[in-house]
Amino acid sequence: MNRIRVLPAILTDDPKKLAEMVRQVETFARQAQFDIMDGSFVPSRSITWEDIARLNTALTWEAHLMVFRPEDYLDGFRRAGASRIVFHYEATADPPRVIREIRARGMGASLALNPETPAGAVDALAREVDSVLFLSVRPGFYGSPFIPEVLGKITHFRRAYPLMEIGIDGGVKESNIAIVAASGVNVIFVGSALLLHPRPAESYRRLLSLANTPR
Question: Which positions ≥6 away from 162 have C-beta within 8 Å?
Fold first, then answer.
């Protein structure tokens, strides 16, 4: 497998804090994910596409939509500059339609799965998306506890889809990133272990090294 990527996951409900986080991330990464929450699909609310549009960032970024009716958010995030939309399989009654609408707007399309959702639920859609993202926490908060059982789902999914881009998001830190990397992921999204760390760039380099240490 190619080198595993570690990407910052930016989560906040404060536009000022958002700008601070983005400036930090720009010092050590070229790509990031913005976590978007509606207070309904998950309990918390976050920043909006308008807040991101005001940033004028050089980062290539994707929007992880933890929202019901993700199709209602697509035009805004396209205008804000998203390269990819990640939406939850559980958040819509018609995932194929959402994928088509994302593609029609010229953005990449990815599916996210909550921890309790079987990986097989997306078998019919896996070849229609750019990647599948496995949530390893209950989504919606920084610092939620890691759910190790998700790693078995990832390993099984990797066997079924050896060329698929597979990501994991939630609860990854120095103490568990090695076993996460061994599960078969290509991309590891990290939030609190980076952006709540006193030296985010140093933490990023350490996590990247640990994820790619031969086992």
Answer: none
Please write the tens of the pLDDT for every residue from 180-199: 999 999 999 999 999 999 99
Q: Which one of 35, 38, 51, 130 is the catalytic residue?
A: 35
- Give 45's DSSP letter: B
What gap in Å lies between CA 51 and CA 82, rounded to an integer? Answer: 13
Q: Among candidates 192, 153, 133, 165, which has minimal Cα distance to 9?
A: 192
CA distance 91 to 67: 6
Residues 174/213, Cβ–Cβ less than 8 Å: no
End-to-end CA distance of the chain: 13
User: What backbone phi and psi angles, to 5 degrees, belong to 139?
Assistant: -70, 150
Active site residue 51: no
Convert the pLDDT of each residue in 8-20 to its tens digit: 999 999 999 999 9
What is the pTM for the complete model shown? Answer: 0.96
Mean pLDDT taken over the chain: 95
Question: Catalytic: 35?
Answer: yes
- One-letter amino acid at 3 equals R
pLDDT digits (tens, 9 = 90+) for 57-94: 999 999 999 999 999 999 999 999 999 999 999 999 99
Let me know how many helices (H) and strands (E) the chain has, helices first: 8, 8
Q: Are 210 and 3 in contact (CB under 8 A)?
A: no
- Dist. CA 213–CA 210, nearest whole Å: 5
**Tokens 């309990």 correspond to what residue?**
43
Q: Provide CB contacts within 8 A for 76, sequence distance 6+.
A: 48, 49, 50
